[in-house]
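Supplementary Note 2. Why include the ligand at all?

Several targets in our set were suspected to adopt different conformations when bound, so apo predictions alone were not considered sufficient. For every target with a known small-molecule partner we therefore ran a joint prediction. The input for 6-O-phosphono-alpha-D-glucopyranose is given below.
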Amino acid sequence: MASTTAPVVLASNRGPVSFTVGDDGALTPRRGGGGLVSGLSAIGTGQRSIWVCAALSDGDRAAARQGLTEPDVRMLDIDAGTFARAYNGIANSTLWFVHHLLYDTPTKPVFGGQFRREWASYEAYNRAFAQALAESAEPGAAVLVQDYHLSLTPLLLRELRPDVRIGHFSHTPWAPPDYYRLLPDDVARQVLTGILGADRAGFLTERWARAFADCCREVLGASVSDDLVVTHEGGATQLGVHGLGADADFLRDRAHQPDVDARLAALREAVGERRTIVRVDRTELSKNIVRGLQAYQHLLRTRSEWIDRVVHIAFAYPSRHDLPEYREYTAAVLRTAQEINDEFGTPSWQPVILHVNDDFPRSLAAYRLADVALVNPIRDGMNLVAKEVPVVSDAGVALVLSREAGAHAELGEDALTVNPYDVIQTADALHAALTMPEDERTSRTKRLAEASTALPPTAWFLQQLHALTGGQPQS
Ligand code: G6P
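The joint prediction is reproduced in token form.
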């Protein structure tokens, strides 16, 4: 059993803060983005913790060297080349693509010499984390390792520190075995056995946990019990499902601050009396932003009653621009939005309002205003936007939700479900959402908000921690 007094140790690639270097060389801290950081940042202050993360940029590396991070954050200054090969080459171009089924398989992936160099860097990067965690964890501490960047770390840490309790958590979907087997055989095995080095492996939905179990069975020949204990080569790992929810207290308070009110007023001014369809995403291939725009275009082409009566507010924030696929995707998003505005826009009506610069208060303002929220990912571990919008909505929102988002397991009953590839069905769902009777919308929003907040971040974190430490809350 784990120590109940040692600080819990968290490990993730992206930490709670990242630094940018200004023209004058000054370092400015910024809150990290994405579902993982949103979830973990909200952990109660009562919990003593150490957070080990990677320096992601030159600004981070400088901050790490100058000791500018908080004492409970340890940023690893990994050599920039090793980091880039591990993060861009393996984590974001290989494992992310596999779990989100993103490959255009006639041409990609190609696992050749470059891949092997990247894989060696990924191993080195995971070893650096395991080493830092081994140094940071007090005897018997609980160590919670996050996501696909760190799939080898649990086993490496287990070898260095057999005394600690290790949890791993996947914030992504998990690929089904036939797709997972695209990976070279040794790599496919190494990723699975790496995670099985943990005492517990957590997932956002049962669907992803079962896919992981299926991969263990088919790729490793592991055995899986009815209650999802995976046994392989003498070790046993309990799989768990912890559906991260939205942080209602934080969101409702933050969404009513003056900066959000000001942005809401500006959006209202731009929209006028028209209805709104809102989406907020990183510009991420798996988020399916282009098909979302095409669905909106189809709606305007086929249902003329919406001409000049609706605005699509699409926030597509920058993400992973080191990868050419993401730069091309961003260009496609901009192009499609422009095409719609050229086709339908008038001097007094801009059908798509697209913003590509990250602005959290503006996102919250759009959440409050939305008549319809469009969340149509190809595949998504959870998707917190689907959970956040109903919580802060001012007047009720109709949610159009992909059946491939993890959030669908909890919100499916009160959302309008779509196949993310089917733009005609998505357009029909947008129409149904825009015309949903007000009382139905209100009651659905209430139920969506309840389901979305069933396991807020602090409870989500403690649930995993208690499961890992044998039910003992840590002090
Ligand atoms: C997802 C992943 C996180 C990641 C985030 C942002 O939510 O599960 O691990 O941090 O995307 O992506 P980035 O590559 O910018 O860290």
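The CA atoms of residues 130 and 156 lie 6 Å apart. The longest strand covers residues 275-282. Comparable summaries for the other entries are listed in the accompanying table.
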